[in-house]
Amino acid sequence: MYRKVAWEGYREEETARLEAFAADYRRFLDEGKTERECTAYAEALAKEKGFKNLEDVVKSGEKLKSGDRVYATWMGKDIMTFVVGSRPLEEGMSILGAHIDSPRMDVKQNPLYEEEGIAYLDTHYYGGIKKYQWVAIPLALHGVVVKKDGSKVTWTIGEKDSDPVFYVSDLLIHLSQEQLTKQAKDVIEGEALNLIVGSRPLVFGEDDKADKKDPVKQAVLQLLREQYGIEEEDFISAELEVVPAGKSRETGFDRSMIIGYGHDDRVCAYPSLMAVLNYEGTPEKTLCAILTDKEEIGSVGATGMNSHFFENVVAELLDACGQYSDLTLRRMLRNSRMLSSDVAAGFDPNFASVFEKKNAALVGHGVCFSKFTGSRGKSGSNDANAEYVAEIRRIMDDNEVDFQTAELGKVDVGGGGTIAYMCSKYGMNVIDAGIAVLSMHAPFELISKADLWEAYKCYAVFLKDA
To answer: What is the pTM of this model?
Structure first.
């Protein structure tokens, strides 16, 4: 089946809209390097668009009606936006779901130590990474430190030109004969991902009776106290994420692509969010965008899709519309239709042997639908039914959206999953719909602006026609 290059169909006006959307997306990507930052950014956009906080609606006793726009956040790491439709809620919603966590390194709870005149923070990697890719590059610290009194200190260190950055060292090539004989997964061990944070010792006075052990560590602690009001034990209740420092960049002589940290899955999260925020008028079915946490480690915990936060919020929405009952909630979820907005593995000619080309996602060929994900024998997959796939085809063709279909790779090579199978447990129709990414899970990933634009168009027409 022929799949045209999306760029071929653009005229000047649409190209201008594409470029403007890509610029807005890059701001989201640069400002949202953690799930907390993405949620805060999305909440600010929702407020600008006139969306009200569902929690405030519930507290006030206000009743929602058709056309009302509300949002809900959960633990600062998830956000859901809704446009209430004209039809009864039990007839279901049109849902776009994406995740906003990305592979990274997390600072441990007892992290700070000194070794031979260098101060380090010990880390634990999060999600699937090639550990050797995270050494010898500039790194930034993002996150929060919550002190015992409940006050929060927010960190974003390493993004401004005036900021310091941080670093994980690698072994010099001259002494790496043994290292280079190891398998790639063992070249850098997890316990070697130690973040260099200082080397200047604290200067003690002659009469200073303080403990003079670990003077570099003590100097770092002094800086933390003076600049942030943080003591060493405050690391116990901190969530600090180590991410690549620096902004996303346009790529190629033609500027047709974007490299950046966290395309997986913020490149789907942003157009999903904006498709709901930009919806004009009152839809027939209620619209919903879910941006969720913890997908990279199995959607576990209180902020992952395996928890009940989504259905709890939907129950609150039903009640605020005066339509709640347990049976109505079940019917609403069962009758909903969803695009699980998550990225696909872009076909890379440099590594063609792991792909089955005619069933691979080609960069620049539009939004990608994956009927199933999982690994090998479709293990852990959703596997959308043919009737739903046919309806999606119709919607895309009727609205002239460029799309393609794909699998993650060759059947026996590997695999991966999304949040689709967790949402399908309600009985709703779900299919994965995302964007081809090169170098997925690397510190900097690569996507096509055309695919980003076609994904936004796809999500917008799905909300209109599904």
So the answer is: 0.95
